[in-house]
Specification:
CATH superfamily of the largest domain in chain A: Chorismate lyase-like
CATH architecture of the largest domain in chain A: 3-Layer(aba) Sandwich
Low-confidence stretches of chain A: 230-234
Number of helices of chain A: 7
Radius of gyration of chain A: 24 Å
Order of helices and strands of chain A: HEHHEEHEHEEHEHEEE
Oligomer: homodimer
Number of domains of chain A: 2
Chain lengths: 234, 234
DNA sequence: TAGTGGTCTAGACCACGGG
DNA sequence: CCGTGGTCTAGACCACTAT
């Protein structure tokens, strides 16, 4: 193990074990350098990594201190549906239920903070995992941001994956809610009206322009989000 | 702006703009060092930061390359209820509905991967935000891991916050589901039976031992999780 | 003012891995 | 083999900030 990793895990262990409590002062860099018989820069690298993880806070003049734990910070990785299904060894397919080009309209324009006359591609798509409906995907693609969507049928590639290839990088906002299935949703998902459903809304931007807005509605009895947060992991 | 930050944002911009596409090769370190008239180590620091963000992949001998984007990775920060309410400017209070010391039992023992005869403190707690029920908290605290919970009444501090002070650091697993309110839940939350509710389950460990297991049940019409993922942010 | 972290240099040696 | 990234050194100067 490298020296800076050694220093990193040593301090991490002291914090996790409770040996060093929140607010406790960590030896200054030159002391740690002497202790581990290495240069100050190597110590600095280890402490910077700990600071980036939020385990310590560093202040000029006063030194570095053990941070207050924040176990309530949840980090979740949500893959796109097809990837997630494949990873879990499930069979995934999808159907395009609707595909039309239109204008955004007032209500949605306000919701997306985009002009109401913006041209969009509206998609509705059903995802089927192991033969059972797993999600309705209702998606808006901004055609001025992604003009090539106009010619794409999405017959062979899910819209989410296609956009990943098309748009190089982006910022996304997520909202997770619980909603009751309305009649149409229940019929498509082959469940009961009023059934609790998990809704994931994602709006994606590139360079400040909305690229796409999508809502996935999952039947509550067949879907959940799970994630693990390791403040200790590497 | 420091030199390595300059290099970082330059490359980040090229990737976000699509100027450099996934799979493209990034100049080797000594080329970038010459271009920015700095040492190779400074370049290395910038590239390492980009690699840690998942924007590039680095391979010995072959060089560094633009990574494939993963915008479907969702990072969410979920604060604990009282903190979140305070941050949003809402009034928060809570009531202890039940508090008893007992043994874990078979079914839950299996679920938590803990022995069935383990002594636990079982808590049920109602969180009220701006005068309306916002969550039922059903919690199990392992008394062998947190013996001091035996004497704590939780009259003045919510169990979640108390545990944050008591347990220095930990690993946590989260599950988010949509469930229908049963009769009891609906009564406590002052909503209808069958109402869609958002359920957050969190199991917390320290040094491999379960510390606590908690389920928060939120009425779907009064609660959602929201988060933003910035692959570009600092 | 003095102590601390933030950054940088101009080298160095090593580990890895494709040819 | 040899080009690449991974790590490290022994300094250096600067920025910030508590006192």
């Amino acid at each position: 193990m490298s020296i800076y990793q050694h220093i990193f895990t040593d301090i991490e262990t002291k914090i996790i074990s409770g040996d060093w409590r929140p607010g406790d002062r960590i030896p200054v860099e030159h002391e740690l350098a002497a202790e581990y018989r290495c240069s100050r820069m190597t110590v600095s690298k280890a402490l910077s990594a700990l600071a980036e993880r939020g385990m310590i806070v560093r202040r000029r003049k006063t030194g570095s201190f053990v941070a207050s734990p924040q176990i309530d910070r949840t980090v979740m990785d949500i893959q796109d549906i097809s990837t997630e299904a494949e990873l879990a060894g499930h069979e995934h397919r999808f159907e395009i239920l609707a595909r039309k080009i239109e204008r955004l309209g007032e209500a949605e324009a306000q919701q997306l903070s985009e002009p109401a006359d913006a041209e969009i591609l509206r998609l509705q798509c059903l995802h089927i995992v192991d033969g059972r409906p797993n999600a309705i995907e209702r998606r808006i693609i901004m055609l001025d941001a992604v003009p090539r969507a106009r010619e794409e049928s999405f017959a062979s590639i899910p819209p989410g994956k296609w956009l990943l290839d098309e748009v190089p990088w982006s910022k996304a906002k997520h909202v997770i809610r619980a909603v009751s299935a309305d009649t149409t949703t229940a019929r498509i998902l082959q469940t009961e009206r009023g059934e609790a459903c998990l809704s994931l809304i994602r709006q994606t931007w590139q360079n400040g322009r909305t690229v796409t807005y999508v809502e996935f509605t999952h039947p509550g009895d067949r879907f959940q989000f799970a994630g693990t947060f390791h403040p200790t992991a590497n």
